[in-house]
């Protein structure tokens, strides 16, 4: 059997990370103790995680000339970058505040990520077949079109609706094979007004999402309280691995990349959840987005 290929159509950003005492409050001006710039974007981070985990991954998207270094970095990790187009306009940018507890808060400027055209999508999808995976986040344009066209080809679709926007309700969500959300995205998606903060409430949220999307495998990540898996009548919970937290940026992206890579290797879902949790814990113990993601050599 041919190993499925992964097409990740996703964002490529330049991350500007400010180390701050606390996340800035409305009307407040604060100084940062350190500033660094590095390659990021939920899409690019997930491609890096997939490639570092040993999967065959193609990244498609769009950068400006200021983002050419992201292409080089992804290629260096083994990502096939032939479907990344370059435009005259600036790349996506992220302003990241990282507080003393290493929690982050992010502002995005989408830049070239929302210049992707339907023609480029058609050209790219032409290369992929039934059984290949399409991985999506929510930082580019034409997501509905991507889902529809990929499904026509019988590709499998994994969607991580981050950051959450109300436009998500217009997407053909019933077509998804795998949905990966955190508790805030899950709450929005289920149109719930409840507070989700403990095991009992997370299980209720997962049940709700599984009922809404009966054909989709759902993964609900809940930060340091672990992650849940639900599909039909199956339910699982995976704890986090405790490590000294240095930087939580891209922890979710690492989880997505390692979960999917483990799944494609044919590992049981319990093991996929465990591998994803281990990889995410390694990522949070190091600084940066892509650079913090563990490699196959140090992992498997
Ligand atoms: O998930 C982390 C990523 O979110 C950052 O790299 C930033 O670019 C934003 O897309």
Q: Can you tell me the CATH architecture?
A: 3-Layer(aba) Sandwich
Low-confidence stretches: none
Structural class: alpha/beta
- The beta-strand count equals 13
Which molecules are bound in this entry? alpha-D-ribofuranose
Number of contiguous helices? 9
Question: What is the H/E order?
Answer: EEEHEHEEEHEHEEHHEEEHHH
Shape estimate: globular
Alpha-carbon Rg, integer: 18 Å
CATH superfamily: Ribokinase
Quick one: CATH class?
Alpha Beta
Biggest β-sheet strands, sense, barrel: 9 strands, mixed
Helical proportion, percent range = 25-40%
What is the CATH topology?
A: UDP-N-acetylmuramoyl-L-alanine:D-glutamate ligase
Q: Beta-sheet strand percentage?
A: 25-35%
- Distance from first to last alpha carbon: 22 Å
Q: What is the averaged pLDDT score? A: 97
How many domain regions? 1
Strand order of the largest sheet: 5-4-1-8-9-10-11-12-13
Keywords, please?
UDP-N-acetylmuramoyl-L-alanine:D-glutamate ligase; 25% strand; globular; 300 residues; nine-stranded mixed beta sheet; alpha/beta; 9 helices; binds alpha-D-ribofuranose
Protein architecture, described:
With 300 residues, the chain is an alpha/beta fold. The chain has a single domain, classed as Ribokinase (UDP-N-acetylmuramoyl-L-alanine:D-glutamate ligase). Helices cover 31% and strands 25% of the residues. The protein contains 9 helices and 13 strands. It has helices at 42-52, 68-77, 118-125, 143-152, 183-189, 199-212, 251-264, 269-284, 296-299, and strands at residues 6-9, 13-19, 34-40, 57-64, 80-87, 92-98, 104-109, 133-136, 156-159, 178-182, 217-221, 227-231, 234-238. The strands form 2 sheets. The chain has a 9-stranded mixed beta sheet with strand order 5-4-1-8-9-10-11-12-13, sandwiched between helices. The chain has a 4-stranded mixed beta sheet with strand order 3-2-6-7. α1 packs across α7 and α7 (251-264) packs antiparallel against α8. The longest helix has 16 residues, at 269-284. The model has no long low-confidence stretch (mean pLDDT 97). Residues 11, 13, 15, 40-42, 45, 94, 106, 139, 249-250, 252-253, 289 line the site of alpha-D-ribofuranose.
